[in-house]
Design a protein that fits this description.
By secondary structure, the chain is α+β, with helices and mostly antiparallel strands. The strands form 3 sheets. It has a 6-stranded antiparallel beta sheet with strand order 3-2-1-6-5-4, sandwiched between helices. The protein has a 5-stranded mixed beta sheet with strand order 8-10-11-13-12, with helices on one face. A hairpin with a 6-residue loop joins strand 1 and strand 2. Helix 1 runs antiparallel to helix 2. Bound molecules: adenosine-5'-triphosphate (ATP) and magnesium ion. The site of adenosine-5'-triphosphate has 21 residues, from helix 9 and helix 11.
């Protein structure tokens, strides 16, 4: 009898071990089921904000944390922004950029996860974000969000409940969630963009409708000569407008993909300004706007594509006409320094609200109020910016809501070849 005891003990212990393993396995399966469930929800979301909310909720749930946040890289500025956060009021209302030296910045730069059970012990931790948000961080775990090889942001969870350290399992869960989340975010963004494309295609239909309508009238109705001429003029004008929109489309597509071919020669911007003024003056006069040109007698040449510079000037000047007010004015000012040339187009229009400033250069984006008052596709400024940057120049915009705006750019002055 006595010898059996150790065997019985061993059996019991084995049984316990098996039970433990089974329990762990059941938990693991439950978590995986939850992940599958979550990824199904994420995949069905087509709008970005609700999707981000789902992601942060899932992140906190899977890791038993108080708070979580999604930070996304802005493809244009390269800055990292809080796009969604649970529990931090300030980040729910404002889009705040986080410094590159922050932990999220580190994750994005290194494309690696971070697990810190006590932030006060980690040198990468800075007080700054806490100070800004009024939140106290104790522990943090974050993983990069990436699609293929491209990092698009970071997913972070903060303050583990019960003060326990983060486990390997939780890190794996967060990483799995992040890979699902990143794909869903990209999809939602593409969807947003296709929405914008639909808007533009819709815009293309407006001139097309006039063309079809008036030409049909011409074909089916006996009209006197004067009316006929009027209709043909409408058709011609709308066809030109349609052509312009299609060109803008193609232009931006080529600029963005780097397939645009530019011819660089010495360009006299004074001549370009004069040509722009010749085109714009009749439009300005028609709207009762004063057009002033303040350019020194000669300007040093820049190296550029003359047609493209013309396009830049026309885009800015036509906006200054379009978005001006009755009886307002437009000033075109040029100044040269040692190494650069600065050209500014100032208007006395309704200006741009501070919160709309960063939307100005988004393609297809038009600021709400302009939609009723002036026609456009929202491609002029993005094309202009791309062109200026291809010329190694820089765009600057200042605006005061209700007062007017200044759209300016600087270009490097051509260095004389010895
Ligand atoms: N000078 C300005 N004053 C106030 N708002 C402006 C000015 N220029 C541009 N905007 C705003 O920025 C938006 C984008 O300008 P952009 O030139 O890219 O497009 P658009 O003028 O609407 O169309 P497009 O130039 O393609 O015909 C405009 O819809 C308008 O709301
Ligand atoms: Mg425009």
């Amino acid at each position: 009898m006595e010898e059996r005891r150790p065997i019985r003990d061993a059996l019991t212990s084995l049984e316990n071990q098996i039970n433990e393993l089974e329990k762990a396995q059941r938990e693991q399966i439950a978590r995986l089921e939850r992940i599958i469930e979550i990824s199904r929800v994420l995949n069905s979301r087509l709008e970005l904000q609700p999707l981000l909310q789902d992601i942060i909720r899932a992140a906190s749930e899977l890791t038993s944390t108080e708070v979580s946040s999604v930070l996304l890289l802005d493809s244009k500025s390269g800055d990292l922004f809080f796009e969604a956060a649970t529990g931090i009021k300030k980040y729910e209302v404002e889009r705040i950029a986080v410094p590159k030296e922050s932990i999220a910045g580190w994750i994005v730069e290194h494309n690696e996860p971070v697990v810190i059970n006590d932030v006060s012990q980690d040198t990468r931790w800075s007080q700054k974000v806490d100070e800004e948000s009024g939140f106290v961080t104790r522990s943090i775990m974050g993983v990069p969000l990436f699609v293929k090889d491209r990092v698009i942001g970071a997913l972070e969870v903060l303050n583990k409940r019960n003060e326990k350290p983060f486990t390997e399992d939780e890190l794996n869960l967060l990483s799995t969630l992040a890979s699902q989340a990143a794909v869903a975010i990209e999809k939602a963004r593409l969807f947003q963009q296709s929405d914008q494309i639909a808007d533009v295609v819709h815009e293309l239909r407006t001139p097309l409708t006039s063309i079809v309508g008036y030409s049909k009238l011409l074909l089916t109705t006996q009209l006197d000569e004067k009316t006929t001429k009027q209709f043909v003029e409408v058709i011609n004008r709308e066809a030109m407008r349609l052509g312009g929109m299609v060109n803008d489309f193609l232009d931006l597509a080529r600029l963005e993909s780097g397939r645009a071919r530019l011819t660089y020669v010495p360009v006299d911007m004074k001549k370009v300004i004069e040509e722009t003024v010749a085109v714009i003056r009749p439009q300005a006069e028609e709207r009762g706007l004063e057009l002033l040109v303040d350019v020194p007698p000669t300007l040093p040449p820049i190296t550029g594509d003359e047609k493209r510079m013309q396009q830049v000037m026309l885009n800015l000047a036509s906006n200054a006409v379009k978005y001006n007010r009755e009886g307002g004015s437009i000033r075109i000012v040029a100044e040269a320094s040692e190494e650069s040339l600065k050209i500014a187009v100032k208007d006395t229009g309704r200006g741009v609200r501070p919160e709309d400033m960063d939307k100005l250069f988004d393609k297809f984006r038009r600021i709400e109020e302009s939609e009723g008052s002036a026609k456009g596709t929202g491609l002029g400024l993005p094309i202009t910016k791309q062109l200026i940057e291809l010329h190694e120049g820089e765009m600057q915009v200042t605006s005061e809501w209700g007062e007017g705006s200044t759209f300016a750019f600087t270009l490097p002055i051509a260095v004389k070849q010895e």
